[in-house]
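Hi team,

Below is the intake form for 1-acyl-sn-glycerol-3-phosphate acyltransferase from Pavo cristatus. Please confirm the fields before the structure is written into the shared record.

FORM ID: S-0412
PROTEIN: 1-acyl-sn-glycerol-3-phosphate acyltransferase
ORGANISM: Pavo cristatus
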Amino acid sequence: MRKPTDPTSHQEGPKDPTPIPWDALEAWEDPIPMQDTKTLHHMVRRSKNTPHSTTGPHTTPRGTPKTPHHARRALPIAPRRNPISHQEGPYDPHGHHEGAPKLPHHATRDTKTRRHTKRGPKNAPHNTTAAPQPPPTGPPPAPGPVTELRAPKPPLLALSPPHGGRCGRTRGGGAELSRAHRPHKAGAAHAAPRGGGRKRGGGSVGLGGSRGRGMELGWLLWGAAVLLLLHLLMELSPAVNFVLRIGFYYVLCIVCSGLTAPVCLLVNGGRTVKNMRIIKTVVKSFKYFFGLRFEVKGLENFDVEGPAIIVSNHQSILDMMGLMEVLPDGCVQVGKKELMYAGTVGLITYLGGVIFINRKSTTSAKMVMAEVAKTMTADNVKVWVYPEGTRNCTGDLLPFKKGAFHLAVQAQVPVIPVVYSSFTTFYNPKKNLFTSGKIKVEVLPPIETKGLTSDDVSDLTDRCYNIMRETLFRLSGRSGEGKDSS
Ligand SMILES: CCCCCCCCCCCCCCCCC(=O)SCCNC(=O)CCNC(=O)[C@H](O)C(C)(C)COP(=O)(O)OP(=O)(O)OC[C@H]1O[C@@H](n2cnc3c(N)ncnc32)[C@H](O)[C@@H]1OP(=O)(O)O
Ligand SMILES: CCCCCCCC/C=C\CCCCCCCC(=O)OC[C@@H](O)COP(=O)(O)O
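The structure came back. Fields below:
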């Protein structure tokens, strides 16, 4: 439904010059046990059922020639076993039919129960003494549905503060209110002598009046109070500020992933690096929520002929915002496979073509990297790797893992380092610090690997590490500190 109005969808189709062959992405999926991916495939199938049902399984809209084939394999069309549609279809009307007749029945039961509870008799004498009762017009125990529904109202409405307060205070206003809301009249009449009487007796009319007004605006005031309290707590307690802000980031990621996934499916038909453009568009707006600013330099260094390995420092889950700020087209990331199970975020990373590796198995991770080395040239994709292998928010770099550099040498493609200045001035989970801030980003000139062999990987790794560390310190205002390290 969103497809025609989504601006990204207009950009996607015609502008992409070289669609990524699906075979490569298939290869990258290989190390992931099929059993592990079942849930995710199932989620993808669910979202995909609708377009397929209209266009047919072999005609995925806007797909490359290979897309339908892959889509059939990776996202096989479920034979109408969508659990949601199964439930929602019959449940909705059924629920309505059941709900409607049940209401009076339920109310009747409720009333009967009340009659037999201690409150019933307690209220009855109170009501009769407190306010003049209208003369009974029918047989008292007549159990018609109207009588049954009205019976429990007086005690409920007697607790209703606005009517009680008004009637007790100003008769004119109360009468008008009663005329406007006939069904509440009885309640107001009951409430008036209770609340008003007590207040008068206690000599606290003024207090009762302001309370009545306040309670009339109850919801509004509660909302304002909660917001004010949260604001105060955020101001006073760094821990609350941190939890709320990072919680909001999580919610934003989860919700936006859930909303973006169907768009990706509709526009590009399944798992493809082209989806990264859509994801990027969405994520780039996140920074405004957190008061983050990016100052980017050296974007022209991405303009290398053909594929490349991009390496960058990894400080936090907030890096996703920095990543999307500079991400070139046709670039996939290497991520830990656990990400795939992160609900909607897992789904969107899967759809974006993220290459998942198992960090617990060096052999498996190396196999994936070797496969990527083979296919990235043919597919003309850039691959983004975090060589530290984990998040590190100390303002320094962890020693680099060599996977990215083996990959570059094996594929004989350049390495492009990207450095983000330290987050420590505005983000530090250990100190519950998360405020607004500025992040400097620098894309460094490519480092060629043509002619290098596996023997050169260590040197290449060290060279890259040193350049990036020096840049990190310079961008973070710690000039000179990185020069002597290796
Ligand atoms: C719409 C809203 C959306 C909101 C959500 C937004 C979502 C956005 C999507 C974007 C998602 C981005 C995802 C980013 C995720 C970031 C991460 O997950 S970081 C963590 C995962 N990444 C990595 O770990 C990469 C870096 N690691 C490596 O490169 C590692 O080397 C390794 C390949 C994983 C292997 O690691 P390990 O098992 O620890 O082994 P090592 O010690 O590194 O190496 C052992 C040995 O093997 C040699 N070697 C390594 N790789 C290779 C290779 N490819 N080929 C040959 N040999 C290799 C290495 O040299 C060592 O040998 P040596 O003799 O000791 O040198
Ligand atoms: C059904 C399961 C539901 C789980 C919900 C989890 C929801 C997660 C939601 C939002 C988080 C948004 C994160 C965006 C992507 C972040 C990628 C990232 O930065 O991963 C960290 C990884 O590089 C290194 O991990 P470690 O530092 O080794 O650890």
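SUMMARY LINE: The pocket of LS5PKE2X (ligand 1) is lined by residues 253, 256-257, 260, 279, 282-283, 314, 320, 333-336, 345, 348-349, 352, 354, 357, 359, 362, 365-366, 369-370, 385-387, 389-390, 401-404, 406-407 (CB under 6 Å).

Thanks, M.
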